[in-house]
Design goal:
The complex is a heterodimer of chains A (393) and B (228). By secondary structure, chain A is α+β, with helices and mostly antiparallel strands. Chain A has 10 helices and 10 strands. Chain B contains 8 helices and 10 strands. The chains are: A alpha+beta (393), B alpha/beta (228).
């Protein structure tokens, strides 16, 4: 009976349904749109968190240079070895030692002549990532096919040489590099050329460290940089870094004071903009949410008030209150569903896919809308029915 | 004209008082009214505006409960009855402004109370058709919406709605108030026929002296009391 009556009402007076559904549609579109905007913003912020690299580098305390620094082994271990205090917060640790007094020997030099043989003096950089060394701006790294900077992090003796050293490369693509006052030398595979006017050689870190270890020497790291591994933990990482900010125990005896630069300005600026937008959107969203609830309540309430006489007639004919509420609530739930479904389909056509969060919002909105209906029905059927029926209210 | 052969007590107001509070005072709309209404009779309740006629009707219809006293239908107090069922099955109210459902046709309006009673569709339809014919509305009216009818026709639809579902008591609150003389006469004749030929108890609240004259019994009210 409820649905027969409802169907007749809808057929003969669709404007009420259309207006109610249209209002619901607009509000639902708005709510979904706002949610989508918020989701987009959050996704962009997530992307910023994931993609913006926060590089940190050890510098001299006055920040005048970030190479030829007396960084100790302890300091390096703190960042590079499992169990190190900073190890969980960093990645892509860049190490470099400028090992200046090296020599590239002619390729036909026999091993027994390595000691004392004449060659070309070079500036040797031991590093696990030559590209992170940016002393010379605009320098271009050209790798041979199949090679990249990543090879410097391995155990193979590879190197990149200044283009001025190319004549020293043998047919097998290697050069002989003599280190440490000419006492030891190593054949290194040339995997790239670095265009500069100095006789520079970048040699892979680990093989060279192993080589000089044979003399019981350890490299003094002269340049060090790293990236924060998870930007979401930046604050924690910064707090820890602050604790280890040039700790006195990590300094060399003759030490230059060290500093640590955390280059997070781009990240902070970006995230600040997102966070501001997000908090603004949150305020707008809350306002729209409250407004939507208010409007829907009002629409339902006013709609029912215009039917006060009809509801009173129903009551006077013996319609139970429960049936009355059911009829009106079903009717408005239907209006809501029509509006809600059209809105959802509409936004989906525009490529927005409402998620669980949006559905929860719409559900709450629907409950408030129906609460408005229920209160209006209660209000419309309270008081003296006879007065209403006589048209005195 | 009055059919005296088939009369029995059907509705009784027993010391009915209805009071309500306003901001400043308690208003006694009906005071200590006792009266027994019989089937097969047309009653006219007359009196000045605000004398409590409509409130009395409202309590008789079970739309309000008396503050004191009781309304007894067929031996049972309306306080004990399920008043939704009471209104659905036993009493019907007719109003000056007809109060038809504007979005239902004439037939659907008459069918509505029968649907509440869950009568079988065919039976309900046949009964509604018969009732509509009995109030002078033939098939050509049945699919019309109330807005397409004259006042007199709408009031006859309201009467059909009131009697189609078997109620034996018709409470009419100024049913001819919006009608011209001819239509008033027609409606009154319908009430008389229902009472005298079919045994209905018809209680009419009216200001119209003609209606009062045409009724079997006139009840005069003043300040919430029956005075004669």
């Amino acid at each position: 009976m409820i649905f027969t009556y409802l169907a007749k009402r809808l057929r003969r007076h669709p404007s009420e349904a259309i207006v109610s559904a249209a209002i619901v549609l607009v509000i639902v579109v708005f709510l979904i749109g706002l949610h989508a905007a918020r989701d987009d913003l959050l996704a962009d912020m997530d992307r910023a968190y994931d993609t913006i690299e926060i590089r940190c580098r050890v510098t001299s305390a006055d920040n005048s240079r970030d190479y030829s620094l007396p960084i100790t082994e302890d300091y390096v271990k703190m960042l590079t070895e499992e169990g190190g205090e900073l190890y969980p917060y960093v990645k892509d640790v860049f190490l470099l030692e400028t090992y200046g007094n090296a020599t590239v020997l002619p390729i036909d030099t026999p091993p027994e002549n390595y000691y004392g043989a004449p060659g070309m003096d070079v500036e040797l950089h031991m590093t696990n990532d030559p590209e992170s060394y940016t002393v010379k701006e605009g320098a271009e790294y050209v790798y041979k096919d199949g090679y990249s900077a990543a090879d410097f992090a391995g155990t193979e003796p590879v190197c990149m040489i200044s283009h001025l050293l190319e004549p020293m490369v043998g047919e097998d693509g290697t050069v002989i590099v003599r280190v440490s006052q000419g006492t030891i030398a190593m054949k290194m595979k040339v995997i790239g050329v670095y265009a500069d006017e100095n006789n520079t050689v970048f040699g892979a870190w680990q093989p060279l460290v192993d080589l000089i270890a044979t003399l019981n020497w350890k490299p003094n790291v002269g340049s060090m940089a790293f990236t924060i591994s998870d930007n979401r933990k930046l604050d924690v990482a910064k707090a820890i870094l602050r604790d280890y900010y040039v700790p006195a125990s990590k300094l060399n005896n003759d030490s230059v004071q060290l500093g640590l630069v955390v280059d997070d300005s781009l990240f902070v600026d970006t995230i600040t903009v997102y966070e501001r937008s997000l908090s603004l959107l949150n305020v707008v969203q809350t306002l729209v949410y409250v407004l939507s609830i208010g409007i829907s309540f009002l629409v339902a309430y006013l709609n029912i008030r215009t039917r006060k006489l009809e509801l009173a007639v129903m009551r006077s004919l013996g319609t139970r209150s429960v049936a009355l509420y059911t009829e009106v609530l079903c009717e408005h739930a239907l209006f809501f569903l029509i509006g809600g479904i059209l809105a959802t389909v509409g936004v989906m056509l525009f490529g927005m896919m409402p998620g669980a969060e949006q559905m929860k919002t719409i559900g709450t909105f629907m409950l408030c809308y129906l609460l408005g209906v229920a209160i209006a029905v209660a209000q419309a059927t309270s008081g003296k029915i006879m007065q209403t029926l006589k048209g005195k209210e | 004209m009055e059919n005296t052969g088939n009369k029995r007590d059907i509705l009784t107001a027993e010391r009915v008082t209805y009071a309500y509070k306003t901001r400043h005072q308690i208003v006694y709309a009906v005071r200590d009214v006792s009266y027994t209404f019989k089937s097969g009779t047309v009653y006219a309740i007359v009196g000045k505006s605000g004398c409590g006629k409509t409130t009395l009707i409202s309590t008789l219809a079970g739309l309000d409960l008396p503050t004191m006293g009781k309304v007894i239908f067929d031996g049972k107090s309306t306080m004990e009855l399920d008043r939704d069922i009471y209104r659905r099955r036993d009493v019907a109210v007719i109003y000056q402004n007809y109060n038809l459902f504007p979005l239902l046709t004439v037939m659907e309006n008459v069918l509505y109370p029968m649907q509440l009673q869950r009568r079988p569709k065919k039976e309900a339809r046949a009964l509604a058709a018969e009732t509509l014919r009995s109030v002078g509305l033939d098939e050509s009216y049945w699919k019309r919406l109330p807005a397409m009818l004259s006042g007199g026709e709408q009031q006859r639809v309201a009467i059909a709605r009131a009697i189609a579902s078997g109620q034996r008591v018709i409470l009419a609150d100024e049913p001819t108030g919006n009608l011209d003389g001819e239509n008033s006469d027609l409606v009154m004749k319908t009430f008389q026929r229902l009472a005298h030929e079919e045994g209905y108890c018809v209680i009419i609240v009216t200001h119209d002296p003609q209606i009062a004259d045409d009724s079997d019994t006139v009840i005069r009210m003043d300040s919430g009391k029956i005075v004669s």
